[in-house]
Write a structure and sequence with these properties.
mainly alpha
Length: 42
């Protein structure tokens, strides 16, 4: 990503699963615990 991107264009370019992967990559959200069901979402 280079420069500013509008939220609407950003939302259109990805789906919710990719968004969660991106946010978890930034440490903003915990990944969905499908592999480790015992893992708690903080």
């Amino acid at each position: 990503m280079d420069g500013v991107i509008s939220v609407s264009d950003f939302e259109k370019s990805i789906n919710s699963e990719e968004l969660i992967n991106i946010l978890s990559g930034f440490g903003l959200v915990e990944p969905i615990p499908t592999a480790n069901p015992e893992r708690k979402i903080m």
